[in-house]
Amino acid sequence: MVLEYAETVFGFNQVYWLDCSSPCFLRDLDGESIASGLLDATEPAFLAVFEDVPLLDGARVDAFCALLDTLLDRGCEVIVTCTPLCDAFAAERDRMVLFANDLLLSNDEIDFLRTPAERDETPANRVPRARRVPACAWGDGKNAAFLCGVLTEELPCQMLAVLFVLLCLDSGPLSSVERIAHADAEALSFIAAAHAYVGVDVAQRSFRCAGFPIGDVAEAFAGKLEDIASGAGGVGAAQLAADVASTLLASGNAERACEVARLFLPAAERAIWLEEHARDLERVGCLMRARGLYAATPPEVFSASAHVAQAVRCALLGENVAACVAARRAIACAPSVVERAIVQAVQCACSVGEASEQAAARARDVCAVGIEAECGDELRDIAMAVEALDAPSSGVELARAWLDATTDRALSDSALYAAALLLGRLDEADAGAQEWADVAAMVAREATARFGDAGSLSLPCALAAAAFQQLVDNGVLAMPPLDAACAVAAAARKRMLLEQRIQCEAARTAALERRLVRDKTHPDTFRCASVGSDMALRTPPRLTVNLFGGLEVFMGDRRIDPNLLMREKVRALLALLVVNQGHDLSRDRIMKLLWPDSHMERARNNFYATWSRLRTALSMPDGTCPYLIKRQYGIRLDASLLSSDVAELDRVCRALLFNRPGRGGWGHLFSQIEDSFSSDLLPGDEGCELLDDLRSDCRTRLVDALVTASGKLVEAGEVRQGLWFARAALSRDKSREDAYAAVMRAQIASLQRSAALETYFSCRKFLSNDLGIDPSAETMRLYHSIIDAQEEVA
């Protein structure tokens, strides 16, 4: 605006621009040389612009006001720009003050750069005040840079806390800001006048920001949250972020709440928040974000109920494998009877074939125990759902039993899930619709009552109501339909769930496509089969080989009979081929590794016998074995058809060794390591020299990566995760001095000096007793740094 004024009125003639952020300005102001320099060198009429005047003390304020009076007395025009906190010139005569609200864009200026479609979609007179800030309306979308520029102003902590809460909440009543940030009327009035982009309306007691993504807010406020939290009533940064996230969730903005929790809460506090609000997130249908929040947190900080909630989320999203993983974690945490029943229901729904039958049998047993112990109606609802999952043909009888268990009471969420399941299978039953009328009537009554009370439907109620409405629309049930608004709300909630399922499926498909692209571009892909053969025209199922924690081999979804792989040499040969990941191994080398003391002829006979057994185990029903490739001098597994946890270990180790941790650290990688690589490679096959070497090599690579990752995390400020990685490294190999040192570094960074001393003494004891050597200079340096710090404190 100043540039435009200088050009329009003065044509840039006789305009003098002073950069007041330069130290030279303060020097010349103290020397009283600015006025004489301007008046001696120019004609009387000119424009003087003082840009970015800093905060001045009392003496300099008087000197600057005297300078302005001198220039104004000579007929000059003066423009001063500064931040609101630096405006100490209220006593200056003949001044006109322009605040941020005076510089907002008009309707014509709003429409200047917009397309006709954008103007039709949102007329200029409907653009909120916060979006009329020129930097927001005409900016290039660099919101984080804009907010970082705003924070260069040295605002008090209380003001920064209010700004942080406003930007995170984005819109709502001012009472929420007053409660969370302890904002007073003076602070809100100042922000309303000076920071128009947050859209505070003191008269209406509300605010509506320009719409900044949480990621941009996090980038701008990174590293400042602890200081900011001190201005919000002295609460900690974690408590401030948790209050913001809870307020967002209560106001209906669940996805933004999850983002706040993910970006601003440490892992332990994040787990607590997710566990406290798991049921609320599920009821509003926020599954994807909650699932991601769980995945970004190390699993060991969760309780059984949090794992149960994740299992339900994944089951609703159609992610059967992830649901079963969360269910297994829940069972390992000693869940309650009700939680165990829910877990078994999830396993029953998400398993296939024999696994489904076993899960259903276990679920029935648990539910029977719970019902006998009178654990409540909710458990009976779950029991009915489990039975329906296991035996859909008997749906009528099960529905009647479920109806008897839920008579004369409001339906719980699990009851509504069961109702949605049973009503969804109604057209598959042999009985007439009249057998289901009572169940359907209860669903209709519950949905109508809930929608009448709250004006919305929870996810389980919406799924049951949508199933009921579909049956009515299809003529299966001769009953009055739901109220139009209630039916629309149910359909919208169900559509939201379907959209999230589509997103999950798209993510899985994208991962599969990336794997296929990799397979197709593999240099040996053309060797998989001869051109024109049947094998080239069809794709065999993928071979999945898991070696860590025990041998598991799957051909597609079918698990290969473990009895076919009972022989130690067969397992060792398979492990060697998997670890080699598709590269050729010469037969001579294999024979030396597997039978080092045997004569060459005997070793050759043993090799062909072992090869034959392995080929039999990996053969398809038609007798072909596309996975094993034998050439004149070497053999290998076809990498384009192979998936293994060894390859996943390599990927994780490369990420830890060569990447830098992002915001929030490497919680997902730590979770994967603890889930998939907590045990050694084929731990039951001790004594085989080849497997012992492979096992040791994998353990060494993993410990190297964990130690390196710990150092990177400590340097990046993720001290707690750095300690997790260091302890994980030490637990896997207590003979590694660098693992002891990594634990000590993380403990020192966490201010756990006594624990660091205990780690040092454990290291010294091991080195002295078992190896007969002293600790290295680096370990001694860490030890002395602890001692020196204690002496300084003393």
Briefly say what this structure is.
This protein is mostly helical and 794 residues long. The chain is 61% helix and 6% strand.
Can you walk me through this structure?
This protein is mainly α and 794 residues long. Among the domains are: 2-98; 287-390; 393-519, no CATH class; 539-645, Orthogonal Bundle (Arc Repressor Mutant, subunit A); 659-678 and 698-793, Serine Threonine Protein Phosphatase 5, Tetratricopeptide repeat. It has 39 helices and 13 strands. A four-stranded mixed beta sheet has the order 9-8-7-13. The longest helix is centred in the middle third of the chain and has 37 residues, at 484-520. The chain is globular, with a radius of gyration of 35 Å. It starts with a helix and ends with a helix. The relative contact order is 0.04. GO terms for molecular function: DNA binding. Residues 534-641 form the OmpR/PhoB-type domain.
Helices and strands, with pairings:
Elements: H1 2-10, E1 15-19, H2 23-31, H3 34-41, E2 47-51, H4 58-73, E3 77-80, H5 107-111, H6 116-121, H7 134-137, H8 143-151, H9 157-169, E4 171-173, H10 174-181, H11 185-194, E5 200-201, E6 206-208, H12 214-221, H13 225-229, H14 237-250, H15 254-264, H16 267-276, H17 278-283, H18 288-295, H19 304-317, H20 320-332, H21 337-350, H22 353-372, H23 377-390, H24 395-405, H25 413-424, H26 437-454, H27 459-473, H28 484-520, H29 534-537, E7 543-546, E8 552-555, E9 558-559, H30 568-580, E10 585-586, H31 587-594, H32 600-617, E11 628-630, E12 634-637, E13 642-644, H33 645-658, H34 667-676, H35 689-715, H36 719-732, H37 737-749, H38 753-771, H39 777-793
Parallel strand pairs: 1-2, 2-3, 7-13
Antiparallel strand pairs: 4-6, 5-6, 7-8, 8-9, 10-12, 11-12
Helix pairs in contact: 8-12, 9-10, 14-15, 18-19, 19-20, 19-21, 20-21, 21-22, 21-23, 22-23, 23-24, 23-25, 25-27, 26-27, 27-28, 30-32, 31-32, 33-35, 35-36, 35-37, 36-37, 37-38, 37-39
